[in-house]
Write a structure and sequence with these properties.
The chain has about 190 residues and is α+β, with helices and mostly antiparallel strands. The chain has one domain. The chain contains three helices and seven strands. A hairpin with a 2-residue loop joins strand 2 and strand 3. The N and C termini lie far apart (about 75 Å).
Length: about 190
């Protein structure tokens, strides 16, 4: 009985020490992680809307009720609005796919950036490569569609081979941004 009590106390001490160390580590790393996330978001905004020099957050009430919209920023240059960045989170194969879309004041997609996702490495993860580049310079007058074969028309993009679900998820995010832009931001 004494042996069991001794092992129980040792296990309790190890657990308490591990908990204290993990709590301390979490507190130390919380702020640097938040700063890195902030910087990554700023870089993503600049990547998809390179004409903008400053970004102003749009009040959430402007996009309340829109599906998949996380945040919206107004891109500014010399005090003038040059476009918007819209971050969405549609559901892909492995979970949510963070999609940042830049739309110019001329109603053209200036860029798409894929952020955090859990898509299959080697397949769905290809969305962050050449696939996202298909959206550049597309008009936002109409919804965009994903096709599996053939030559894409003006309102179409070619799916990633073997990753149609991810392709459609990214496209859903882009279309959510287009809808918001056309209905509220234009």
């Amino acid at each position: 009985m004494k042996e069991i009590m001794k092992l129980g106390i040792i296990l309790l001490i190890i657990t308490v020490v591990a908990s204290v160390v993990l709590t301390y580590t979490n507190e130390i790393t919380k702020e640097p992680i938040a700063q890195q996330t902030l910087q990554a978001n700023i870089l993503a905004r600049q990547t998809v809307l390179s004409d903008a020099t400053d970004f102003e957050e749009v009040d959430q009430s402007e996009f309340e009720g829109y599906e998949n919209i996380i945040e919206v920023y107004k891109g500014m240059k010399d005090g003038e609005v040059v476009g918007y960045t819209v971050k969405t989170n549609p559901k892909g194969y492995g979970g949510e796919v963070e999609v940042m879309v830049g739309i110019t004041g001329d109603s053209v997609i200036s860029g798409v950036n894929i952020g955090n996702h859990q898509e299959t490495p080697g397949l769905g993860a290809k969305a962050d490569g050449e696939f996202k580049d298909q959206y550049k310079e597309k008009s936002v007058e109409n919804e965009l569609k994903v096709i599996k074969a053939g030559a894409p028309k003006d309102n179409e993009v070619m799916a990633i081979s073997g990753a149609t679900i991810t392709s459609k998820a990214v496209n859903t995010g882009v279309n959510s941004a287009i809808k918001l832009f056309n209905e509220k931001l234009k």
